[in-house]
């Protein structure tokens, strides 16, 4: 589940044993989640953006700071951008022949 405070995007349980490309964008108050390049869900009333949290000391991948279960899987190629990618850019990144053509945060 992807969650930011009281703003829920989706509860999503992918198939086990297969790789999935998952992307989440946040533009204004609209968050969208894409699975394999296709929009899976959106929430137009996100109340909190990650930068609103300020400096944090509990930054995890595959784990929550709360008593939620751990991710039973693997994470590969985590990229954080300083803007919301377009649907076209996400489709390109999810493509099997992708070589991450959108510029990540801090790229010159």
UniProtKB/TrEMBL annotation:
Pfam families: Laminin_G_3 (PF13385). It comes from the Bacteria. This is LamG-like jellyroll fold domain-containing protein. SUPFAM superfamilies: Concanavalin A-like lectins/glucanases (SSF49899).
